[in-house]
Design goal:
By secondary structure, this protein is α+β, with helices and mostly antiparallel strands. It contains nine helices and eleven strands. The chain has a five-stranded antiparallel β-sheet. Strands 8, 9, 10 and 11 form a four-stranded antiparallel β-sheet that branches. It has a two-stranded antiparallel sheet with strand order 1-2.
Length: 278
């Protein structure tokens, strides 16, 4: 029985020059692949179980797993090549000139890959972070080795080259904390009761459920405009990604309360003086 199994494993499928591919070679490749997937499964389970128990930031857990995954797959591919009697060191040395040419042609791709490694190791950008890139606001869903995937406010999936994040100016709305301060600008007619306007604007913000830290809500007289007294309403919210909807709701509440309290939002006014030279 043992001799039969040995003969099957040693059976040559392909014989080209000094390179022989036996059944044992295919079995070895299959086992390397299965063990790699199994190891990654165990590591993923362990990391995310630890994340759930210790409340580690999910973005940090994801970044660590991605780095481990790429390292393990590189090792696995090296073992597969060795099982095929392909010497990895000789292959790299022999194809150095070719790699230089490929590197020049795929310079941007390599730039994206290096940027992906930086993002995963530096962890300045994490999963669920809200970024402003090229005047578009996206929520990061995944960070890959070459590209990252995000969702914009229109629920459209955006594929972002990693180099765009690392080399351009990017605003991370959720980097320091999960809440951010926003503002709404409103102009009212000259002669309005300033104290009443400030109180009404702050009350309008208090009514919205997505406003955090009631004590930090503040309305200010920001400027004396050409046709109006200009106010701004400052507030904190955790709903960063959908802040446009939050602002719209608060503006609707302000407009309703202004109407109830006879506070006028003026039209732009322009006085034209006609000279008669006759």
């Amino acid at each position: 029985m043992l001799e039969t199994i040995t003969k099957i494993l040693e059976f040559e499928l392909i014989n080209i020059a000094d390179h022989k591919i036996r059944v044992l070679t295919l079995v070895s490749i299959f086992l390397i692949y299965v063990l790699t997937r199994f190891c990654l499964y165990l590591i993923r389970k362990t990391l995310f179980r630890k994340h759930n128990v210790t409340k580690i930031d999910p973005g940090n857990t994801y970044a660590l797993f991605q780095i481990i995954k790429y390292v393990i797959w590189v090792i696995a591919i090296g073992l597969i090549l060795e099982s095929l009697n392909v010497k990895v060191t000789v292959l790299i040395a022999g194809s150095a000139a070719l790699l230089v040419g490929v590197g020049l042609g795929l310079q941007q791709t390599f730039n994206d890959i290096i940027s992906g490694i930086i993002l995963l190791s530096e962890r300045s950008i994490k999963i669920d972070d809200v970024l402003e890139i090229d005047e578009d606001v996206v929520k990061i869903q995944s960070i890959g080795l070459r590209t990252s995937k995000g969702l914009n406010r229109d629920d459209i999936s955006i594929i972002i080259p990693n180099s765009l994040i690392t080399t351009n100016k990017v605003i991370n709305w959720s980097h320091q904390s999960k809440k951010t301060r926003f503002r709404i600008n409103v102009g009212v007619a000259y002669g309005s009761d300033v104290d009443l306007v400030i109180k009404t604007m702050e009350e309008s913000a208090f009514e919205h459920p997505d406003i955090d830290e009631r004590q930090s809500v503040e309305a200010r007289l920001s400027n004396f405009g050409a046709s109006s007294l200009d106010f701004e309403l400052l507030f904190f919210s955790k709903n960063i990604f959908r802040i446009g909807k939050v602002k719209s709701d608060i503006r609707l509440i302000i407009n309703k309360k202004f109407a109830e309290k006879k506070i006028t939002i003026p039209f732009n006014q322009l006085d034209v003086h006609m000279k008669n030279n006759m």
